[in-house]
Amino acid sequence: MTTSRRIVIASDHAGVVLKRAVAAWLADQGHTVEDLGPDTDQSVDYPDFGDATARRIAESPGALGIVICGTGIGISIAANRYRGIRAALCHDVTTAKLARQHNDANILALGARVVGTGVALDCVDAFLSTDYDGGRHDRRVAKLDRAGA
Ligand code: RB5
Fold first, then answer.
1. Is 102 a catalytic residue?
2. SS3 9
3. Which of 13, 31, 102, 137 is catalytic?
4. Which of 46, 38, 54 is CA-nearest to residue 86?
5. 32 has which bridge partners?
6. What is the pLDDT, as a whole number, of residue 3?
7. Residue identifier of the C-alpha nearest atom 3 of ligand 1
8. The pTM is what?
9. Please, is 24 exposed, middle or buried when counting C-beta atoms within 10 Å of its C-beta (0-12, 13-18, 19+)?
10. Which of 37, 106, 131, 136 sits most deeply, having the most CB atoms within 10 A of its CB?
11. How many angstroms separate the alpha carbon of residue 88 from the centre of ligand 1?
12. At the topology level of CATH, where does 6-146 sit?
């Protein structure tokens, strides 16, 4: 059983149905879920929701984020503009695990038009139940925050 965590989740219109399924699954697993929206499938701009999630994760030690758009690409690019944010776009259990083990990813990005609900939930489960390996990865992860160097 994965430790209960605080999870911040957001999407754009293309990801809202998958977001609902993921949020329900997380609550069912005993996690505390903060849903930053949107609530409907009316068209919105993914950078707004990637930004909001990145800001919330940056100010919430220990929390992890999940962002979802059609491909997961745009919303992960938006989130990764923030120092200290490591958003990983994952398509399977292997990438979700390695994003935690090697990259200490603090946001999981999913593409609702790319993966089905079952694979998405497998990715979420792997992401939340895998720890960062530390060690040789510390130096590399620290270098990710050298923006402008
Ligand atoms: C919205 O149509 C789509 O562009 C968006 O969800 C995402 O895939 C962008 O990266």
1. yes
2. strand
3. 102
4. 54
5. 6
6. 83
7. 70
8. 0.97
9. exposed
10. 106
11. 16
12. Ribose 5-phosphate Isomerase B; Chain: A, (3.40.1400)
Mean pLDDT, residues 114-121 taken together: 98
Q: Is the CB of 12 under 6 A from ligand 1?
A: yes
- Written as six digits, the tokens of 73 are 């690409």
Which tokens go with 128? 């939340």
Which tokens in the block code for residue 26?
């997380």
Query: Is 74's C-beta closer than 6 angstroms to any atom of ligand 1?
Result: yes
- Given strand 6-11, what is the order of strands in its sheet? 32-35, 6-11, 64-69, 107-111, 87-89
Question: Is residue 32 helix, strand or coil?
Answer: strand
Residue with tokens 């593409």: 111
Ligand 1 near 69 CB (within 6 A) = yes
* 43-66 mean pLDDT: 97
